[in-house]
Q: What sequence folds into this?
């Protein structure tokens, strides 16, 4: 009898190893695709009783779990909850203690755990295996069956072996994702650095342009202001009142243009925080009068008239 059992075990061994090798290749590609996980579940079902298999991510500190992958028949899958509490569940126990839990019937589960989620799906046996922990997060591998006493020592050993393979595959996939994310982050950093350099170059070019512009505008403007002042001082007696008024307009507009040029120069100083803005009172009557006087030639050309009544207090 013993020889017969050994003979059967010897015949079964190559098949088992072949299926384990196929499972390893399947999970080594990717588990993100639902079809891949279904294929993995089908292969595993040839080794152990299986109506549902799932991989769960557990937040140990918050005692919540989220199903990452699941495969099984419609009659046992039900509605997968996005997340659930792990308190009093086999998942919570395994994530806290790091040891495999085997359930052979719902009665045993009810005595040992306050919550047996498998019973609501019609499941009667399960094996829940820890897959490792990363900080406050733990991965759990669970295989379930609608049969009573579905899992003996040999089945549990096989499930633990497969869980170890899956854990390695998930770790490799996570390492790959992290390397991809680091590569993408590095590319973003390079692009941001290039954009920063480009903007700094554009800002420097702008400042050089403003400095050049102010110099090119100030050179002729300085002469205009100087000659206008000279005419005002030396030729006042020879000018009519009208000419004196026009000369005043030239002087005011020249100084106004000089102020605008200085504003251009101040732009770069403002951007560097090197200028202080001081508010002060202004004579509104003088401001409006200066603007209107600058428009007199155009207004007279159009045969129009503007009447401005100064305010008694315009400061």
A:
């Amino acid at each position: 009898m013993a020889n017969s059992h050994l003979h059967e075990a010897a015949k079964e061994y190559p098949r088992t190893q072949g299926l384990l090798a196929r499972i390893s290749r399947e999970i080594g590609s990717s588990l993100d695709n639902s079809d891949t996980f279904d294929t993995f579940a089908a292969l595993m079902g040839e080794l152990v009783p299986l109506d549902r298999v799932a991989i769960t991510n557990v937040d140990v500190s918050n005692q919540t779990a989220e199903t990452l992958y699941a495969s099984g028949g419609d009659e046992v899958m039900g509605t997968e909850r996005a997340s659930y509490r792990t308190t009093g569940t086999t998942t919570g126990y395994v994530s806290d203690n790091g040891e495999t839990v085997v359930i052979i019937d719902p009665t045993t589960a009810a005595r040992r755990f306050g919550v047996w989620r498998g019973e609501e799906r019609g499941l009667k046996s399960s094996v829940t295996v820890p897959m490792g922990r990363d900080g406050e997060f733990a991965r759990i591998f669970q295989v379930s069956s609608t049969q009573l006493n579905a899992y003996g020592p040999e089945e549990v050993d096989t499930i633990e072996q497969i869980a170890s393979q899956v854990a390695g595959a998930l770790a490799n996939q996570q390492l790959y994702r992290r390397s991809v994310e680091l590569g993408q982050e590095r590319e973003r950093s390079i692009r941001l650095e290039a954009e920063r350099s480009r903007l700094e170059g554009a800002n420097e070019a702008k400042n050089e342009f403003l400095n050049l512009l102010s110099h090119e505008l100030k050179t002729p403007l300085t002469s205009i202001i100087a000659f206008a002042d000279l005419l005002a001082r030396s030729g006042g007696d020879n000018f009519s009142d009208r000419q004196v008024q026009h000369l005043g307009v030239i002087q005011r507009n020249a100084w106004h243009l000089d102020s605008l040029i200085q504003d251009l120069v101040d732009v770069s100083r403002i951007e560097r925080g090197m200028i202080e803005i001081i508010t002060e009172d202004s004579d509104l009557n003088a401001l409006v009068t200066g603007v209107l006087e600058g428009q007199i030639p155009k207004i007279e050309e159009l045969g129009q008239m503007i009447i401005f009544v100064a305010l008694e207090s315009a400061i």
Q: What stands out?
A: The chain has three domains: 2-184, 199-278, 279-315. DSSP finds nine helices and six strands in the chain.
